Amino acid sequence: MADKVVIDKDILGWGSDQEGELLKQYKKVSYVGKDADLPQRSFDVEVASYCKNNNCDLLTGDGKAYTHCFEAEIKTIQITKYAWYKDGDRPIYLIRIID
Length: 99
Known about the structure:
By secondary structure, the protein is an alpha/beta fold. It is about 30% helix and about 30% strand. It has a five-stranded mixed beta sheet with strand order 2-1-3-5-4, sandwiched between helices. The longest helix has 11 residues, at about 10-20. The radius of gyration is 12 Å and the shape is globular.
């Protein structure tokens, strides 16, 4: 199980609102567009590669983000509907890399 989580750029507001809760499950919360290793214009395949190389889960509102995991040579993932982002009026998905 990953000890870090990446918040995708489409749910940054939700992520910062939930950071306290997320830190109960994870040692570190990183944000696309705020962290130096995850610049603002990071492509989804780059985010997936970062998660793979750094043992991170990914939280995103993008229902198709998982497709880029396969481009990053990730073989197996688990996708879970994690929460509902009221302000963004969309589901939040947890993408966990299995192998």
